[in-house]
């Protein structure tokens, strides 16, 4: 029995180093294949600094934007804001990420932590969030010439100053403005990729109380204490649907008023009937308003 245990121990001692060596070789092969299958990753591990913008100290980075408006879920007159879900896509060129070939590669969105990305924010936004189901709704795509496509799915509530003097036959003008938080015009320049065609989805939206009459894009400058910033503006006009208010407000109100007149044609002796009509009209008005 002791001889068998001793022989087993000797065999394990001889096989363990070989297994470790083979395991290490396997890990090296996997790591090498990972690096080779991810163009640009070699650059990230060889001096790439995500805290410095492309062409640091030189010409500003040109960032082209496009927008898809997925929905406008609510428009609040009391809070003077609207809530929209948008797909924000940004494109810029980072020469540090150039690789051979003419293909593009879509990367895991978690790799965005290793890249420089613009600090774009939504001006006059009250609250915003990035969708996280089932994973963070972000996209990173690298092109061989160093172009980076960065896409986000965002829901935001944005302030919109409204003039309600002509309510309910009014037209409101709202804006969605995008700007860099920290980089001024010397570091970052924003532009619409295709002018008005850079925005899609608004023409397909169906809103309960409004109709989107028209929209257009602008590029303006925002002068602040910390510098001069490029600001992209999407401006759209909302015309209130009068038919909606005729059906929801005027018709019920007219019906309640007419119902209150019925009591004048009822005999003075029919007190229960007159009381019932008055109570019904009053309770209907209180429930409606």
UniProtKB/TrEMBL annotation:
Leader peptide range in chain numbering: 1-23
Report the catalytic activity: chloride(in) = chloride(out)
List the membrane topology term(s): Multi-pass membrane protein
The family database entries (Gene3D superfamilies) matched by this protein are listed as: Neurotransmitter-gated ion-channel ligand-binding domain, Neurotransmitter-gated ion-channel transmembrane domain
Which superkingdom does the taxonomy of this entry point to? Eukaryota
- Provide this UniProt record's keywords sorted from A to Z: Cell membrane, Chloride, Chloride channel, Disulfide bond, Glycoprotein, Ion channel, Ion transport, Membrane, Receptor, Signal, Transmembrane, Transmembrane helix, Transport
Cellular component GO terms, alphabetically?
Answer: apical plasma membrane; chloride channel complex
Domain (Neurotransmitter-gated ion-channel ligand-binding): give its ranges.
42-241
Indicate the transmembrane segments per the record: 242-266
Residue ranges constituting the Neurotransmitter-gated ion-channel transmembrane domain according to the UniProt record: 249-278
Recorded GO molecular functions are: GABA-A receptor activity; GABA-gated chloride ion channel activity
Q: Where in the cell is it found?
A: Apical cell membrane
| PANTHER family (alphabetical) | NEUROTRANSMITTER GATED ION CHANNEL
Functional summary from the UniProt entry: Pi subunit of the heteropentameric ligand-gated chloride channel gated by gamma-aminobutyric acid (GABA). GABA-gated chloride channels, also named GABA(A) receptors (GABAAR), consist of five subunits arranged around a central pore and contain GABA active binding site(s) located at the alpha and beta subunit interfaces. When activated by GABA, GABAARs selectively allow the flow of chloride anions across the cell membrane down their electrochemical gradient. Pi-containing GABAARs are mostly located in peripheral tissues.
> What does the subunit comment say?
Heteropentamer, formed by a combination of alpha (GABRA1-6), beta (GABRB1-3), gamma (GABRG1-3), delta (GABRD), epsilon (GABRE), rho (GABRR1-3), pi (GABRP) and theta (GABRQ) chains, each subunit exhibiting distinct physiological and pharmacological properties.
Question: What NCBIfam families would the database entry show?
Answer: LIC
Can you tell me which family this protein belongs to? Answer: Belongs to the ligand-gated ion channel (TC 1.A.9) family. Gamma-aminobutyric acid receptor (TC 1.A.9.5) subfamily. GABRP sub-subfamily.
Q: What is this protein called?
A: Gamma-aminobutyric acid receptor subunit pi
Naturally occurring in which organism (per UniProt): Puma concolor
């Amino acid at each position: 029995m002791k001889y068998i245990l001793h022989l087993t121990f000797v065999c394990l001692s001889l096989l363990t180093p070989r297994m470790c060596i083979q395991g290490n070789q396997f890990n090296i092969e996997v790591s090498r294949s990972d690096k080779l299958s991810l163009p640009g990753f070699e650059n990230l591990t060889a001096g790439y600094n995500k805290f410095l913008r492309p062409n640091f100290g030189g010409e500003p980075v040109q960032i082209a934007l496009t927008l898809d408006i997925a929905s406008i879920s609510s428009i609040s007159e009391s809070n003077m804001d609207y809530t929209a879900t948008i797909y924000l896509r940004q494109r810029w060129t980072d020469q540090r990420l150039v690789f051979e070939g003419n293909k593009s590669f879509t990367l895991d969105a978690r790799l965005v932590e290793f890249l420089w990305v613009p600090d774009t924010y939504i001006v006059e936004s009250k609250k915003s969030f990035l969708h996280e189901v089932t994973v963070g709704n972000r996209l990173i795509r690298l092109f061989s010439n160093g172009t980076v496509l960065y896409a986000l799915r965002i829901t935001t509530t944005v302030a919109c100053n409204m003039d309600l003097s002509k309510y309910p036959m009014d037209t409101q003008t709202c804006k969605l403005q995008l700007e860099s938080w920290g980089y001024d015009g010397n570091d970052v320049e924003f532009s619409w990729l295709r002018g008005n065609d850079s925005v899609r989805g608004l023409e397909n939206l169906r809103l309960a109380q409004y109709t989107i009459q028209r929209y257009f894009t602008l590029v303006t400058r925002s002068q602040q204490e910390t510098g001069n910033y490029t600001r992209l503006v999407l401006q759209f006009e909302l015309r209130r649907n009068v038919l909606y208010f005729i059906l929801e407000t005027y018709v019920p109100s007219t019906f309640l008023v007419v119902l209150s007149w019925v009591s004048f044609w009822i005999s003075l002796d029919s007190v229960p009937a007159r009381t019932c009509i008055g109570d019904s009209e009053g309770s209907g008005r209180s429930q409606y308003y």
